[in-house]
Amino acid sequence: MKAEADAVNFSVKDASGSKNYRIEVPAAAGKPQDLGFKMSDTAAALAALHWAPGFYSATNMAVNSVEHKTSSVQFPYYLVNMTGTVGGSAQPLYAVVLENGELVRPTEVSTTAGPPTAKSKTAPKKSKS
Known about the structure:
By secondary structure, the chain is mainly β. It has one domain. The protein has one helix and eight strands. It has a four-stranded antiparallel β-sheet with strand order 1-2-3-8, with no helix packed on it. Strands 4-5-6-7 form a four-stranded antiparallel β-sheet, with helices on one face. It is globular and about 40 Å long.
């Protein structure tokens, strides 16, 4: 993972290759919502765990850490660092949860194709005359 000011870049590998993602915190805080509770590290972690399996096609999800980012940003948000199984291996995954409960969807910035699969071709046998 490479972190920039209000952005996270990371890769996820699956059977078809690597997908490179970028999560950028938007310039606006999102629409106000009455959640009925104050957003917290725990609420952000639960929101991320609920959302991430569908987005990343991941299983065996676990939260490693939650950072409440409040300095040098236009508005606070939660960066959730998770581990999940994608393509048969455990990988780091990320989610950004805004204080109003909205999740910021990662953008796929490029895809690196996996190694080409070998196709077995049987060459026709030449007959000797």
